[in-house]
Amino acid sequence: MNKYRHEKRYKWSDPQILALYPQFSSQFITGIESLELYTDYDEWYSEKLSYLKITFKLIDGIKEKLTILFKDVSSFRLEGFGGGYHPISGFDIIILDYGPGTTVQYEVIDYEDGALFFYFRSMEVLSFSQK
């Protein structure tokens, strides 16, 4: 472990989510409905980056969904998925800070068996819907 690495858990602060779920955490997530991994040119970084768009099912049932776009994804790993249902019992987002002069990065790992894992630089909530 890098002696300059500091870790802490990400705190959800998106107003769109908190309006319906004031105490929202990734434990509200029960499954993955869709997942899209792609690359695209990023004007800010002047290079191609990997993006991961995931639509999650939430604890209250099939009517509620959360879609997040993770940007500058690396070391993506997904294991044990297939068939008609893709369960996941939530995940942690860990903020990785290696100190002054470095870019803060985030790490995602699911709670149970490490079936979902990746790093990313930023994320955007694309939609939070009650259908």
Task: Describe what this molecule looks like in 3D.
The chain has 131 residues and is mainly beta. The protein has one domain. Helix content is 3%, strand content 56%. It has one helix at 15-18; strands spanning 6-9, 29-42, 47-58, 61-71, 74-78, 91-97, 105-110, 116-120, 122-130. The strands form two sheets. Strands 1-6-7-8-5 form a five-stranded antiparallel sheet, with no helix packed on it. Strand 7 (105-110) and strand 8 (116-120) form a beta hairpin. The model has no long low-confidence stretch (mean pLDDT 80).
Strand order of the largest sheet: 1-6-7-8-5
What Rg do the Cα atoms give?
A: 15 Å
Estimated structural class: mainly beta
Any idea how many domains? 1
Helix and strand element order: EHEEEEEEEE
Give the tags.
131 residues; mainly beta; 56% strand
Summarize it.
The protein has one helix and nine strands, in the order βαββββββββ.
